[in-house]
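[Meeting: bench + compute handoff]

Bench side (C.D.) handed over the final construct sequence. Compute side (W.E.) agreed to return the predicted structure before the next meeting so the bench team could plan truncations. Sequence as handed over:
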Amino acid sequence: MTYIKGVDFSHWQSKVDFSKLVANDIEFAIFKAGEIPTGSKIEYADDMYPRNMREAKEYGIISGAYYFFHPAIGASRQARHFLNLMDAYGWPDLPPVIDVEAKDDRDPITISSVLKAMIDGMMADPRYIERYGTQKPIIYSRWGFLVNEVGNPAWLKDHYLWLAQYNTTLTYKPKDMSNVIMWQYTDRLRLPGIGVNLDGNYWLKSREELHMLAGIEPPAVDNPAPEVYVSEEYEKALLAWNAVRGEEQSWESVLFRKMLEAWRKVRG
């Protein structure tokens, strides 16, 4: 299977040459926006986030932003900080990502409750609503971490997941894969022309679904086909045939498309 390719990186990779990303068929890139480390408790902004957002826009790469979550830091403070960073330096095309991989010596109930409170705080902010409507943030993590350290709360099924497993196949995953949209398969991706390792990612759905989630309109048709009269009998037969074809589609793909179509109507 051929996947749509993406990368993610932060200030640790310094100034990545975006022209080389384009040359290597990278279609989306997700950048660290910031975090509040438990040691200093200082609101940290990734130095390269503003540049990365500008470069992605200039080179036509679909952009994303992630925030490193700490369950030991107040949920409202983290939500406000993440929103302020995006508001100041650029709102990503894809819904914001919360990077969930730190325990901070907290139990699953605490981690889950702080994470949910952060999500609720972000989604209640008018700035978030204006750009993403009711679309929930994407959750990045390892599946084992979400199960064992976050407790796999019921509300997690309402979020799109970006799962990490450095392997040739994604084996640690939920039985229901309908909301798993990205797979981070390596942290040692070397691309020609870029002298540092990047995190490599695959988009697991269709290109159309990627563009819909990013709010990208399909390209206009230069020469649209003329309208054709269809008889009532033929139309009924065509609808019946489409219904049969629809049964052959995976229910996960159908569900994913319906969710995206509903959000697209909300987002306008």
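W.E. noted at the follow-up: The chain has a mean pLDDT of 89. C.D. will use this when planning the next construct.
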